[in-house]
Amino acid sequence: LWALTDDAEWRTLLDRQLQAFAGAVPQLSLHGATLARAVDWAVQPITRITVSGPRGDGPACAMHLLALQTYRPRKVVVREIAEQPAAVVCVGTTCSLPVATAAALADLLR
User: Fold this and answer.
1) What are phi and psi of 89, to 5 degrees?
2) CATH code assigned at 99
3) Confidence of residue 46 (pLDDT cuts 50, 70, 90)
């Protein structure tokens, strides 16, 4: 939830959970992979793709579908309602300028 909301409270809870299980990795067996993914999300930069625009078909819908269909590790896609279509890609604390077409978004995601 921290990656979706940017809420510091969720990040604190994530860190607390990781600390609680940090010494138990050898005992987790198959479930250790889930812990490893949680650690990966906690320490590596997250790719956040925010797509805004009107509801229904159009450029915003096309960009939203493209964002959902494109693989990026630690990717979060957020859809917001706005008058004009735009998409912004942030990796960690670095963000792109807004783009208004699916083709331009595809270039950013390469």
Assistant:
1) -115, 125
2) 3.40.30
3) very high
Q: pLDDT at residue 43 above 90?
A: yes
Mean pLDDT within 29-50: 91
| DSSP per-residue letters across 24-64 | GHHHHGGGHHHHHHHHHHHHSPPEEEEEEE-SSSSHHHHHH
57 plus 34 within the same structural domain:
no
Range of the structural domain that residue 70 is part of? 47-109
**Structural domains in the chain (count):** 2
Question: Both tokens of residue 102?
Answer: 């699916």
Helix (H/G/I), strand (E/B), else coil: 107: helix
Q: Are residues 105 and 60 in the same domain?
A: yes
Residue 27 pLDDT > 90, yes or no? Answer: no
